[in-house]
Amino acid sequence: MKPLLVLLLVLGAIAALLFAITNLSKNKPEPSIVQPAQVENNPGPTVPVQLDPTKNTKRETAPVTNPALTANGGAGNMQFENRLTGIVKNVGGNPVVGAEVTLSTFVQDEMFFFPEDIKKIDPEKEPKVRTNAEGRYTFLGIEPRKSYSLLIKHPEYATKREPTTPIGETGTLEQPPITLFAGASLSGYVRDEGSNLVPDALLVLDPSMFDGMGITPPDRLTTRSDNQGWYSFVNVPPGEHTVTVTAAGYGKLMVPRLSFLKDEQIQRDFTLKIAEMICGQVIGDDGKGIPKATVLAIGVSSTQQTSRDQVLTDDLGNFCFESLTKGEYNVIATCKGWRSVQRNHKVSTGTSNHVISLMREARVCGLVIDSASGKPMTNFRVRVRIWTGEGSPTSPLSAQDDSLDVMNPQGEFCIEGVPPGDFLVEATAPGYAPTYSPHFTVQQGQPVNGVTIKLSRGGSISGRVVDAEGKPIARARIVTHDNTWVDDAFTQAIFDQYPTNTTSVDVRSDEAGRFVCTNLNPDLYQIVVSADGFMQVARDGLRVTENGNVQIGDIKLGRGGSVRGTLYDASGKPITGGTIQLQSKETPTSYTTRTGGDGKFSLPNCVPGRYSLSGMQSAGAGANPFEQIQGMTDSAVDVIVAEGDVTSQDLRLRQ
Question: Which residue among 262, 337, 372, 533 is least crowded, i.e. fewest CB within 10 A of its CB?
């Protein structure tokens, strides 16, 4: 059943993505944001920070014994003895002082099936530092991750985003030098249909990849037209962008897919039309207005210029778009707990009584009790999961984190807005395993009552992590997964939506190397064990039962092998910041890193086996993905990784 469920999930994910890209929705590694424990930071727009390389690099790192860690790929409140540092310079090789560097969990090369993934990332909360007099930035105590991205901003240069090398728990990672350059420019006049110049128009320039996601891009550029209607953007990063133009009394204008090259100068005039209105009401199947519904108007146009707007309904369900360009629009309303019953929402401006009807989704109510005592739980969380058959894996109904926190002395809960289908309810509480209700069927708008979840303690997995000589490894990370879990890009992308009935637990080994994963829902598991300086090991086929403990004994971690080399271009020049990939020919295992300033790369602690090693140019903004893929193909060579050995292999890209 799982392949079918995954297929349905993929199709649903792709549909959701296309839906967002076409702006038909209001609104999904590590899906949660991880923050460095400490950064060296100096706020202020231009004052450089003087970094002391000896300051606060040593910290207490008491090992954690089975901490109650969340399944977000992180390690709770653990601190790490690592450092990420690098130099920012300009094309002349001079240091860029006072550049703002943000360490972001948004990595442009990652797969995002759900727009909610990106929306969970709050740019304002991500750690920031400024480059010092040498152009150097430094982050300390970073949550280990395969990749972050560095967002570099400076008023004299185009904003740049660069992926990082994988970040381990210890050591200093020197990033390849980052070179900033002056970007492209976009300028012109803003006029109305009568060729009159429009002063004080607001122009917003966003990367096109953020269209329809409902978020503010961290590298957004804004400007206003002057008294002569003239506007100008400078230092625009390479790539495709969307321009949005607004002015009082005029309809909002959007011009998508403007392509910019490095140093390119583009002049483009924009014509605004007098604003017209579309007003109406969003009502439910009871005829009453629905407050706080999101109403979206998307211009129907075959030209490269269009218009769109978004508003919320008032307490009576009324809405009004006041800044639309004359024409036809698709007007769509969404509200949690409601679904649309109309297919055609095409409306012309000048309409004042348009009605959008929504149908109320079902309410699911029930009870959560302790399975042993039968007493009601008073503090718990519930969420709906999709049921596809007895014994089959389930997945959350929504890509969003729609869990409902409940505090009720009788253990009662009600979940609003459940669509038609077959479901069950998952309940969680501290000290208990996630437990599922019997499955039930929801009919459109018909309430479901009497759903009961009997919370149990579940089972556990315990063992010890040691090195090849049998010595215990402290602070090794042990993560539980579904037995079919594969650590590849696709699985990481769907993460929380992965069909499973297993419990995700993330713990650390103690000083004796011992660990225990508790409160696991009975099912078939695998665990993934990793530790800094060792290769990752997985154990699967672990059958967890209620009140049972799966004792797996010692898990030996080897050092693995290493692959080193230099990436060259066609002329024999080392490539700085190139991407290196080591892909197993036998399993889904892969390793990725980036070359340093001298073009050298190193991939340590790799599982022994046969691999394909390849490289490509830096995947910065404006890079041609087809050329990058071709580069990976042309440079690929076969290598063998052996335990304890270092494999040296240089790579050369073709012309």
Answer: 372
Domain boundary among 330, 360, 390: 360
CB environment 55-91: b (16+ within 10 A), e (fewer): eeeeeeeebbebeebebbbbbeebbbbbbbbbbbbbe
Strand partners, 296: 310, 332
Both 9 and 72 in one domain: the answer is: yes
C-alpha distances (whole Å) from 435 to each of 519, 520, 524 are 10, 9, 15
Asked if residue 171 and residue 25 are part of one domain, the reply reads: yes
Residues 585 and 534 in one domain: no
294-299 vs 308-312, strand pairing mode:
antiparallel
Rounded (to 5) percent helix, strand, coil in the chain: 10, 45, 45
Question: In this structure, are 94 and 106 located in the same domain?
Answer: yes
* Number of neighbours of residue 154 by Cβ within 10 angstroms: 21
Mean pLDDT of all residues in 537-561: 95
Give the pLDDT confidence of 465-512 residue by residue, as tens digits.
999 999 999 999 999 999 988 876 666 666 667 789 999 999 999 999
Phi, psi of 352 (to 5 degrees): -120, 0
CATH code, 631? 2.60.40.1120
Cα distance between residue 411 and residue 530, in whole Å: 39
The CATH number of whichever domain residue 81 belongs to comes to 2.60.40.10
The residue out of 250, 272, 294 marking a domain boundary is 272
CB contact at 8 A, 41 and 128: yes
Say yes or no: 162 and 41 in one domain: yes
Number of domains in the chain: 6
Contact (CB, 8 A) for 10 and 77: no
Site of tokens 């607001």 = 202
d(CA 603, CA 639): 13
Nearest Cα to Cα of residue 501 among 435, 429, 438: 435
What is the span of the domain harbouring residue 201?
184-272
DSSP per-residue codes, 505-532: -EEE--TTSEEEEEEEPSEEEEEEEE-T
